[in-house]
Structures are given as structure tokens and as C-alpha cells.
Design brief:
The protein is an alpha/beta fold. The chain has helices at about 1-5, 45-50, 60-70, 95-105, 120-130, 140-150, 165-170, 185-190, 200-235, 240, 250-265, 275-289; strands at about 20-25, 30-35, 40-45, 75-80, 80-90, 110-115, 135, 160, 175-180, 190-195. It has three domains: about 1-90, Calcium-transporting ATPase, cytoplasmic domain N (3-Layer(aba) Sandwich), CATH 3.40.1110.10; about 95-200, HAD superfamily/HAD-like (Rossmann fold, 3-Layer(aba) Sandwich); about 205-285, no CATH class. It contains twelve helices and ten strands. α9 runs antiparallel to α11 (about 250-265).
Length: about 290
Amino acid sequence: AIIEYANKFREDEENPMWPEAQDFVSITGHGVKAIVRNKEIMVGNKSLMLDNNIDIPPDTEEMLTETEGMAQTEILVSVDGELTGVLSISDPLKPGAHGVISILKSMQIRSILVTGDNWGTAKSIASEVGIETVIAEAKPEQKAEKVEELQASGYTVAMVGDGINDSPALVAADVGMAIGAGTDIAIEAADIVLMKSNLEDEITAIDLSRKTFSRIRINYIWALGYNLLGITIAAGAIFPTTRFRLPPWIAGAAMATSSVSVVCSSLLLKNYKKPKRLNNLEIHEILTE
């Protein structure tokens, strides 16, 4: 969006050439800086400016506070150590985000927002979707540390992210979920990729996982009971009282039947359908729009 807007200033030129940035440095969690036309340019958040002793005027501070309350992210620009501009950008919430958080709560899953954005924007977004716990201004390594902290407390952690800064946390989490439209690094680091980039698929993935483990438990219980009974009869435990003995060929067929029954039980997962409440969520979104 910034590049497209900047190009409007050069529309009258046939072959607009932008000056080359030299000595480019990316400062993780803060911003970037480079030399352009012999001037030091810094673009980043408020922390970047303060760390480099760049003064932020009171009226700019007021503007930053106001935009944070509107869930906008501020990008500050300085030239040769002097603040020259502020860009406010916003990323709209994904459709159904509030509904997804509500459904996760009903599934006894706690949602935590961990972001590198400022506190004002983070709290505004969290309140809009119904998230109570917020961790803002977190660097990539701090996101991973928070995941490990939750794991040490006994929680099973799933991390959903789409950016480069989310990659360490995606690796550290018990289950990493990457948005399909995210960066290649995030997708590579994740265990599950939501190909359609719909947050609703996160609930589907969790529900399908639970159904799969439930099926595994059922198969174990069935196989255990079936084999305990079959082995007992085959060993002749009831022969003294019933005079019934299980012939070897029947015992072999019974073992094969046990394996086939477990496979057929597992194949029933092919009939899996996503939770009906997700259909209601999509209908709600259409009506809302």
C-alpha cells in the first residue's frame, strides 16, 4: 500500500527511478535503516526512534495515542536524526474472527494474542474479537519464550501465525498452524497449513484431531476386548465346562477379522464433516455484511 501510494508522486515520469538504499540494516522487532542520497533514513516503530535518541514532539505523541485506539499501527520515519513523518496503517480483521474465538472458548481452549505491535493497537484488536490475555511489543524470540513458558505450566500450546516473526514460536509450539497466505518461512516451520487462509479451518483442524484420537481409543478398546476374549477361548479356558474348543483355522480368521474391523473403523473418518456451528458462523458473517 505504501509503495503504491508513493508511486503516485512519480506518475508523470516515463521511467521513474527511485534512489538506491545503501548500508541497509533490518532491526528485528523495531524497523529498518539505510543510507539514501547520503542521508540516514530510519523507518520503524516508536522504540526504534527512542533507542536512537530521536525526539518525538508532544503533538505527535497525541496522534500516536489516538491512532492506537483506532487499532492502527504507526510507522515513524526519520531523516538524519529528525522525525519527519508518521504513517498509520491498519489490517482489517479476518471475517469470522470474533466467532472463531467464541467457539474456541466453548471448546475450553484459551486464546492469547501475542504480537509485536504496540499495546494500544493490540488491546483494541483483542477487545474487538474477545481475547482477554494480550502480550504486545513481543520480539520473535519472546513469542517463542511465551510458548515455552505456557508449556512449562502444563498447557498444550497451538500457535497460529503467518509471518517471519512467528516462525520461532511455530517451531516451539506443540502444534504450529500457518496461514496459507503467509510467508514461506512460517509455512515451512508449521505442522499444519490452513490452505484456504480461513480461521474457521483452525477449529476444523482441532475438531478433526480430537475425532481421530477418539477413534484411536475406540480401536484400542475394541481390539483389546476382542483379543482378550478370543485368546481366552483359544487357550481352552472354557473347555472344561462347555467342552468347546476354538479350532486353529477359526482363531486365525478371528485375528484377521479383528484387524479388518479396526481398519474399517478408522476409514469411517472419511465421512468426517466440519462442526455445524461453523456453518452457522459463515451464515452469520454473510448476514452481518
